[in-house]
Amino acid sequence: MTNEETSRYVRLKVELVLEVHDASGLCEAALERIADDAEGVQPGMLGEDRTHAERAVREDAAEAVAHLVDPLDLLGEVPGVELVQAGWSSERIDYDPDSLEWDLDEEDEPDVETGVTP
Fold it and tell me: Is residue 5 one of the residues assigned to a domain?
């Protein structure tokens, strides 16, 4: 692909940290989404995949979040764009908002060796 052909693609990186206050409510919402998928309300999983998803959601709030978040929802009705590829995951983390590790603006800082801002 030439530079002209690839320049129309945009990579959007989003990182979110969520605090779960109601794990059981989160789990129930994810189970409802999985059930809707099975009933054809939304295209989705059946059979063994559904059973596996339900078990994972009951055991881990991060799995429940992964079943409720959809990258297509982020775009909504954004005019002039089409989602080409998407991927997402969720995991439990240790979070300290005061830690430099969680400074979301760190990418804006100049590189120590080169002095160049990304």
Answer: no
